[in-house]
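Backbone-to-sequence.
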């Protein structure tokens, strides 16, 4: 219940921006004079972002055979970095004004070292109180989706999307001399459905919102929830280039039941995007 509450609080600013944008779009749609020109008419766009994550919150729980375990926070219990700056790539290709495919990817690597204040049990390994624990977490996200623009005018684009988010985790824990070590690898394909909205103030300035979420259970091996929220504002110049900035939030709640590890990973990344792009 605590995790759910924190997730909703983090999404409230996004929800407020989305409501304002929706109101703008409703007004535009009510007064729109459909024509043959479209906002965002380009066939191809590639965006390279500086993704500054200032609040990474990862919790891991290793469960025993009867489903009992203790949850640990990477930042609080293991002193792992909660801020990181990484590159991010976003690409889309339009077949026409209604249909397009999207691809996004980014990776994070965070490390920590701390003299434990409590005994930590991870899988078959126990790290004692006072022992120095080295921890690392690597997170990779690959997103491939299809978007259908059900409304596309001179100033507004509304689209629904569907696709696949491949989420990959590599976790590693060891003591200072390396005599005790625990490793966890988990890769889960998480389908997603979403809504995309774009509003062009003029030929240069535009506002964009993306919301994606899904829940899936794959046999008894994976059970997961994924969400992705993003709000950006961008400026186009020199016919084929753009710059922009925004806020982004990605979250995963993944339960894994494999032969070598059984547990849960609850993860979220809040940060800021500063990007440049090329389109034609």
């Amino acid at each position: 219940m605590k995790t759910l509450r924190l997730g909703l609080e983090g999404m409230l600013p996004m929800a407020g921006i989305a409501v304002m944008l929706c109101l703008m779009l409703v007004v535009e749609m009510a007064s729109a004079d459909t024509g043959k020109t479209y906002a965002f008419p380009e066939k191809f766009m590639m965006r390279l972002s500086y993704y500054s994550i200032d609040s990474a919150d990862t919790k891991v729980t290793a469960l025993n055979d009867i489903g009992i375990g203790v949850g640990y926070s990477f930042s609080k219990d293991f002193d792992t970095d909660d801020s990181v700056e990484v590159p991010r790539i976003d690409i889309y290709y339009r077949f026409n004004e209604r249909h397009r495919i999207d691809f996004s990817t980014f990776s994070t690597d965070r490390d920590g070292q701390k003299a434990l204040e409590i005994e930590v049990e991870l899988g078959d390994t126990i790290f004692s109180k006072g022992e120095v624990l080295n921890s690392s977490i690597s997170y990779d996200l690959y997103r491939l989706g299809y978007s259908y623009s059900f409304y596309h005018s001179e100033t507004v684009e509304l689209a629904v999307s569907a696709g696949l988010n491949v989420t990959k985790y590599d976790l590693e824990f060891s003591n200072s001399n390396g005599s005790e070590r625990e490793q966890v690898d988990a890769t889960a394909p998480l389908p997603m459905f979403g809504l995309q909205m774009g509003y062009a103030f003029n030929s240069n300035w535009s506002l964009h919102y993306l919301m994606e979420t899904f829940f899936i259970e794959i046999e008894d091996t994976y059970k997961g929830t994924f969400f992705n929220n993003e709000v950006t504002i961008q400026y186009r110049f020199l016919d084929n280039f753009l710059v922009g900035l925004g806020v982004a939030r990605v979250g995963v709640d993944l339960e894994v039941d494999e032969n070598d590890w059984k547990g849960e990973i609850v993860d979220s990344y809040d940060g800021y995007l500063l990007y440049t792009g090329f389109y034609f």
